[in-house]
Specification:
Layout (H helix, E strand, L loop, with lengths): L1 H6 L12 H20 L6 H11 L8 H20 L1 H20 L3 H24 L11 E4 L5 E4 L2 H15 L12 H7 L8 H6 L10 H9 L16 H10 L12 H6 L3 H17 L8 E8 L10 E7 L1 H20 L15 H18 L2 E8 L9 H10 L4 H13 L1 E6 L2 E2 L4 E2 L18 H18 L4 E4 L6 E4 L1 E4 L2 E8 L4 H21 L10 E10 L4 E6 L4 H7 L6 E2 L3 H4 L4
Parallel strand pairs: 3-6, 13-15
Antiparallel strand pairs: 1-2, 3-4, 5-12, 5-13, 6-7, 6-8, 9-10, 11-12, 13-14
């Protein structure tokens, strides 16, 4: 397959509309070019010549080199004339095609022709819009800004230096959890393993595991939350079946980015039953036996801009292009873990990045909470936190425990994380793919962590992992309760989250600001400790907070909103992060019209 990939050509088409006349003129020109080369003694693809000879029905008996060169010149002239009339030929072909379709379907020829014209005009319009909006503009990395120890920035554009600095930055990015995660140290590492394949994993999933002495309370609570429900029932749908394999690859877009081999090879393989059977078996055998094929251990890193015009290396995003078949397995695992989690009530109600929910619903729920607090004259404090390099800091053992809790086999998750840890990464820039690679342990004591932006199971992996974190928060009683007026049921929530953007809330009935801020402090501090168990970290520069209370003003005889933001420094210091900036009071107190 790799040999076939190297022989694939890049087509640049679309300037002249296709028609049978244009196609015949192009093939005739190409045929005489090959014939001249062959008569000159050059190497040409014989099968291609014979195929064109059969299609064009050209007689070449007794042909000489001068005659072939004259025919080549005539064919080139004819091809140029046909190109000038390509639009006219396209109209004629379209009319003939409409007549044939109408005759076959027994419908109106005018209706079919109108439909064909509308489709072509729509396609042409959107192609022009892409060019206008610079959709086809080359956005590959041609230079980055590197900051030295003195804070000075320099622009790097040289190919070798550019690849070197990007490799160093990405390697450092995937080793951010080297010394901060308790699951990767001491007895816990021996019991759980690098990707939850250790001897005590079954005890954790069954709730019988006893943590070693000295284990932190957050780590204990997280491992307790990894217990699988006693009534757990996996989904009956087999995502590894041959039917699902054919269905998924049939719908896959061929232009999707991948590693060394592009999607077209797998889509083409579906046309042959024997190739389909072989590729299906080779794709899913590793998930059954728990081994990682060597072909999968290759990836290509692509750097993208997070903000337009910002070329700072530490502010660029890294997209990891895994091999197409490996990422296909990841997508199947992701779909299965999400379906199992929802069916068995293992998905947190606080997480809105799941099927059936959206970011708009999260914003609406938060606004309704604000309205409720204003109506009931309560005091509210909220901390909005963003996680630093969310997908790139996921510790594999923590993610594997959360996924095994939701019914994914140990062999399947082992294949995914073993491949990521042993993967060799190339860098793709404007100069092409680098010859040098990085990956594995390297100069570090532990293998690289993270799911990688571009992993087909990345969103579902983080969804079930965050659900385990929310369960741990509920187990510690760090949630806010609401009474549903129509049903009198108690709703307990920690906050609202969409992917890694989290809003922690605390509400109290009295006006004691110290009590309210202490509650928010405890919630935020424990959330920070839980996130660090899974390898994450809060990003203070992207986080903020606000708190307010309502007090009766006797003089004007109405309630007033009072900002209690002066306690912000206390919240920031206790979690050992930089000070989080307060949000304006109007964000909470002013209802939208």
């Amino acid at each position: 397959m790799l040999t076939a990939e190297k022989q694939c050509r890049k087509f640049h088409t679309g300037k002249h509309p296709w028609s049978p006349q244009l196609d015949k003129a192009r093939k005739t020109k190409f045929y005489w070019e090959l014939t001249v080369k062959k008569l000159l003694g050059l190497k040409v693809p014989t099968r291609k010549v014979l195929k064109l000879h059969k299609q064009l029905k050209i007689s070449v008996s007794g042909i000489t080199l001068p005659m072939a060169m004259v025919n080549q010149k005539t064919a080139c002239q004819e091809y140029k004339k046909t190109k000038r009339k390509s639009k006219h030929y396209r109209i004629t072909f379209r009319e003939n095609l409409a007549a044939a379709i109408a005759d076959f379907k027994q419908t109106s020829e005018k209706a079919v022709l109108r439909d064909l014209i509308n489709r072509e005009e729509t396609r042409e319009m959107y192609q022009k819009l892409k060019w206008i909006r610079h959709k086809n503009k080359n956005l590959s990395t041609s230079g980055v800004l590197v900051t030295n120890t003195k804070g000075q920035k320099r622009l790097v554009t040289d190919k070798d230096t550019l690849e070197k600095v990007i490799m160093e930055e990405n390697e450092k990015k995937f080793h951010q959890t080297e010394d901060c995660c308790p699951l990767m140290k001491g007895q816990l590492l021996d019991d759980i393993g690098l990707y939850a394949n250790g001897p005590r994993v079954s005890d954790i999933l069954s709730g019988r595991y006893i943590t070693p002495p000295g284990t932190g309370s957050a780590t204990k609570t997280f491992l307790t939350a990894c217990k699988q429900p006693t009534t757990f029932s996996p989904s009956p749908y087999n995502y590894y079946s041959k039917e699902n394999y054919i269905k998924a690859w049939s719908k896959a877009r061929e232009k999707t980015g991948s590693g060394q081999v592009h999607f077209g090879h797998w889509k083409a393989g579906l046309s042959d039953p024997d190739i389909t059977d072989a590729e299906w078996l080779l794709t899913f055998l590793p998930t059954k036996h728990g081994f990682s094929p060597s072909l999968w251990k290759n990836a290509t890193d692509v750097m993208i801009l997070k903000k337009s015009g910002v070329l700072d290396l530490d502010k660029l995003g890294t997209i990891v292009l895994y091999e197409a078949d490996f990422n296909f397995v990841n997508k199947c695992i992701g779909r299965k873990v999400m379906e199992n989690a929802i069916a068995n009530n293992c998905m947190a109600k606080e997480q809105y990045a799941k099927p059936g929910c959206s970011a708009q619903e999260q914003c609406l729920t938060r606004r309704l909470i604000f309205d409720l607090v204003r109506h009931t004259r309560q005091s509210l404090a909220m901390a909005s936190s963003d996680l630093k390099s969310c997908y790139d800091r996921i510790v594999h053992s923590a993610a594997s425990l959360a996924m095994q809790k939701c019914g994914i086999s140990k062999e399947a998750v082992s294949v995914m994380f073993q491949t990521i840890q042993q993967c060799q990464h190339k860098i793709r820039t404007a100069y092409g793919d680098s010859m040098q690679t990085y990956g594995g342990t390297g100069n570090y004591t532990s293998p690289p962590m993270g799911a990688g932006q571009g992993n087909g199971a990345g969103p579902q992996m983080w969804a079930v992992l965050s659900a385990t974190l929310f369960m741990a928060m509920h187990m510690e009683g760090l949630s806010t309760q609401f009474c549903q007026k129509m049903t009198d049921k108690i709703l307990s929530i920690v906050g609202f989250m969409y992917v890694d953007d989290m809003d922690l809330i605390r509400i109290c009935d009295d006006i004691d600001t110290e009590h309210l801020t202490e509650e928010l402090q405890l919630t935020l501090a424990y959330w920070n400790r839980l996130v660090r168990v899974t390898g994450g970290a809060l990003e203070p520069n992207k986080s903020g907070w606000y708190a307010f209370r309502q007090r009766w003003n006797q003089h004007i005889r109405r309630y007033e909103y009072e900002d209690i933001g002066q306690t912000g420094e206390v919240i920031a210091k206790k979690i050992k992060t930089a000070k989080m900036s307060p949000y304006p009071l109007s964000l909470v107190t002013k209802p939208k019209k």
